[in-house]
Write a structure and sequence with these properties.
The chain is built from seven helices and nine strands. The chain has helices at about 85-90, 100-120, 125-130, 130-140, 150-160, 165-175, 185-190; strands spanning about 1-5, 5-10, 15-20, 25, 30-35, 40, 50, 60, 75-80.
C-alpha cells in the first residue's frame, strides 16, 4: 500500500477543518469478504466519504463541495465514519439525494449493525427488534439489479438477513449447482437454521 496525502474538508456550518487520509495504490491481499458484500482489506483501506463535524455536529459529505486547501493544523481533526445513529440521521435528513449516495448510506448502515453484532457491542435481538433494520433492508432491495446473478444472490441474502427465509430459499435453490459462488450452499443451509447472521466467506 502506498499512502497518499491527507485531504482537507471544511464544515459548511462552523468552518472546522477535517482531514481525511488517502492512498495512491493498494491491493486486496489478506482481505476478508463477508456475505453482506463487506470487504475488509488491510492494504486497501476505506476512508469516510461522509462525516459528522466534531465541533458543531453537522453531517456533511467529504466531496468537492467541501474540499479546501486550508489545513489549519492546530484545530483540525481526522474525519470519522458515522455511527449507526449517524447514518440513520443522514438518511432522515435526505442526504441520500441520488441512488448512489442513498445506497452508500444504507449499505454502511447495514454493515455497521453487522459489525456491532460481530464485536458484541450489540446483541442480535437488539438489532433485529429495531424496525429500522428491516426497513433499511427493504430500501436496499429497491437498488439491486436482479437481472445479474450476483444481484439476485445478494437479494436472497438480504431476505435471509430480514428473516424472510422462504423467499431466500427459493432463490438459492435455483442456483445450488453453481460452484462459482461458494456462498450459495452456505446461505441456503443457514436459512433452515433460521440463522440471520452474516459470515466471512474466505
Amino acid at each position: 500500500m502506498n499512502p497518499g496525502p491527507d485531504l482537507y474538508y471544511i464544515c459548511p456550518d462552523c468552518g472546522k477543518i477535517h482531514a481525511n487520509e488517502s492512498i495512491f495504490s493498494g491491493n486486496t491481499l489478506g482481505s476478508k469478504q463477508f456475505s453482506d458484500t463487506r470487504r475488509i482489506a488491510p492494504m486497501l483501506p476505506e476512508f469516510p466519504s461522509i462525516t459528522k463535524c466534531q465541533q458543531c455536529g453537522l453531517i456533511f459529505w467529504l466531496d468537492d463541495t467541501t474540499k479546501t486547501t486550508n489545513k489549519n493544523e492546530r484545530s483540525r481533526d481526522y474525519a470519522n465514519f458515522l455511527s449507526i445513529d449517524g447514518y440513520k440521521e443522514a438518511l432522515s435528513l435526505g442526504m441520500g439525494t441520488n441512488g448512489g449516495r442513498e445506497l452508500h448510506l444504507r449499505l454502511r448502515l447495514l454493515w455497521s449493525w453487522h459489525e456491532a453484532m460481530e464485536k458484541n457491542t450489540m446483541q442480535p435481538e437488539e438489532v433485529y427488534n429495531d424496525p429500522a433494520y428491516n426497513e433499511n433492508i427493504t430500501e436496499i432491495q429497491q437498488h439491486i439489479n436482479t437481472n445479474e446473478l450476483g444481484g439476485e444472490l445478494f437479494m436472497a441474502e438480504l431476505y435471509r438477513f430480514a428473516g424472510d427465509f422462504e423467499k431466500a430459499v427459493v432463490i438459492f435453490e435455483k442456483h445450488l449447482d453453481n460452484t462459482e459462488y461458494m456462498m450459495i450452499a452456505e446461505s441456503h443451509r443457514r436459512c433452515f437454521e433460521h440463522n440471520r447472521r452474516t459470515y466471512q466467506m474466505n
